[in-house]
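Worked example 3 (structure in, sequence out).
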């Protein structure tokens, strides 16, 4: 893809609301997709990106919550499973590269433990509490099950958020624009 912004699937595309398939083998194509997703995520200033957001309906997400131009710490999670989600619920303003122009407040558990394969096929454990990583893990893994941030809202608010997003896109908003 020549343009990272054009690579991102934008709501209300139905691929964002579709259950994704588990990855059975980590092939060169899977590695190439991970590279492409990381490139897209950094180019659009995102902190996470899920495969369906680039049109691939498989269970992979990339996350980097605190990168700078000089320092990057990317995680690639394959077939991630939330094994624990507990702790007090926290409301946090979330954006999503597939929903240009909007930010929505979503309440989620504050503590999460995730198991996932890395690109070497090793089972990794991620634990996060009360931070952006805890939010991001849940937001990105939701994407693999056809659930987006607006699906956590009540129906009227959800419809309003989708409308606001479509208006913003019509007005020229691009992935990474949050208002
Ligand atoms: Ni998202």
């Amino acid at each position: 893809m020549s343009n990272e912004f054009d690579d991102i699937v934008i709501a209300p595309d139905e691929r964002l609301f579709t259950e994704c398939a588990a990855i059975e083998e980590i092939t060169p194509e899977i590695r190439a997709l991970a590279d492409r997703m990381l490139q897209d995520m950094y180019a659009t200033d995102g902190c996470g990106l899920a495969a369906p957001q680039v049109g691939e309906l498989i269970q992979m997400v990339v996350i980097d919550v605190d990168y700078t131009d000089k320092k990057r710490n990317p995680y690639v999670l394959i077939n991630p499973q939330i094994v624990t989600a507990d702790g007090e619920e926290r409301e946090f303003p979330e954006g999503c590269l597939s929903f240009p122009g909007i930010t929505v407040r979503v309440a989620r558990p504050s503590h999460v433990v995730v198991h996932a394969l890395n690109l070497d096929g090793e089972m990794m454990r991620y634990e996060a509490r009360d931070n952006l990583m805890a939010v991001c893990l849940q937001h990105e893994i939701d994407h693999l099950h056809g659930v987006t941030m607006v699906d956590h809202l009540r129906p009227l608010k959800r419809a309003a958020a989708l409308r606001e997003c479509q208006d913003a896109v019509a007005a020229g908003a691009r992935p990474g624009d949050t208002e």
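Notes: The mean pLDDT is 96. The two ends are 26 Å apart (CA to CA).
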